[in-house]
């Protein structure tokens, strides 16, 4: 065998072996997801079943969109540990992707007279196997989240502030709806992390609690961060944009969506805290707080200060 042929065969065999290993890890994490996090597994199935191109015909014109993300686009397959860690991000991103298509999926399958005004904000939300919905919001009432930069106190500049308040994400174009979409995506990723505790026990039998909390605490803390961001947005609207505030207050779809996401994510955080306290009876925990230490204390203090009592009375009861 000449040297060139030898190198080619060696490369081919190595590549086949590497691909086989990656497929094995992918099958493993998919199996674990189906076993322990059916909400996440169902999200992947629903997104994967969507056609590549989605088309809606309205008023003699066809409006189209297409999937640009593979269902496991954000999954890392170098090891089981990498797959477990990255799957939370994958759930988060596919939550966004599927939510962006829910209004297409709904109208393509319902054979009804419901219409979409594409001049408005149309955002879908997946929260569980039997819980998915989308809302339509008049765009003229929505202002970009960066308007909050001048009103949020400097001592409350949190981990995600630059990205979602002062950045270029969908929270500029879609304002509070973009913030809700992010809050829901973080809920989905956090729910996956919570569900995967048995897998952490399998991979890290002598140190699973530290590993689990280490991977969960940032996304769990996102609940407090987006709770703060959204309440600041509504407080700003109440003070400076009463037209926006009254519109959102009288929009049942917005109020119900906001209430559902807050309730689910808040309940998950409570259950997570209870589970950590139960597990640490028999397993050492090196963290002083199970939430993101840099932000948690100051956010909770702000949220419990009474500043948002009118917002809570109007939207969360």
Summarize, please:
The chain is mainly alpha-helical and 317 residues long.
How does the SSE layout of this entry go?
Blueprint: H1 3-36, H2 38-49, E1 53-58, E2 61-66, H3 80-99, H4 102-110, E3 121-128, E4 131-137, H5 161-164, H6 170-173, H7 175-195, H8 197-203, H9 208-240, H10 242-249, H11 252-279, H12 293-303, H13 309-315
Antiparallel strand pairs: 1-2, 3-4
Please describe the structure with a list of short key phrases separated by commas or semicolons.
mainly alpha; two-stranded antiparallel ribbon; 317 residues; 13 helices
Could you explain the architecture of this structure?
The mean pLDDT is 90. With 317 residues, this protein is mostly helical. The strands form two sheets. It has a two-stranded antiparallel sheet with strand order 1-2. The protein has one domain. The protein starts with a helix and ends with a helix. β1 (53-58) and β2 form a beta hairpin. The protein has helices spanning 3-36, 38-49, 80-99, 102-110, 161-164, 170-173, 175-195, 197-203, 208-240, 242-249, 252-279, 293-303, 309-315; strands at residues 53-58, 61-66, 121-128, 131-137. The chain has 13 helices and four strands.
| Mean pLDDT figure | 90
Class from secondary-structure proportions: mainly alpha
Radius of gyration: 22 Å
Main sheet, how many strands, which sense, barrel?
2 strands, antiparallel
Number of helices: 13
